[in-house]
Amino acid sequence: MRLTPIRPQRLEKLLVDIGFAPTRQRGSHVFYKHKDGRVTSIPFHGGEDIGPVLLGKILKEIRLERKEYLRLLKGK
Predict the structure, then answer these.
(1) What is the mean pLDDT of each run of 10 residues along the chain (76 residues)?
(2) What is the pTM of this model?
């Protein structure tokens, strides 16, 4: 299944739900860290969605399988 654009706020909620916590902010980018050491950042650019390519890179950074991401998303 293809990834679709997502609002940064929705992705942030998903990250927090799976154990990530915001650690710092630089400009419009908020950085998140999991207690096991995984890290990523989410750009909050004035109402713009996160596109499929960037979303795929974020999922790879946090080592979350696409199937698991879609399952978590449906649960919201």
Answers:
(1) 93 97 97 97 95 97 96 84
(2) 0.91
Q: What's residue 76's pLDDT?
A: 54
**24: DSSP letter:** E
Element (H, E) at 39: strand 39-43
According to DSSP, the residues that pair with 43 across neighbouring strands are 29
Could you tell me if 4 and 58 are in contact, meaning their C-beta atoms sit under 8 angstroms apart? Answer: no
CATH number of this structure's domain 8-74:
3.30.920.30
The domain segmentation of the chain, as residue ranges, is 8-74
- Burial of 58 per CB tally in 10 Å (0-12, 13-18, 19+): buried
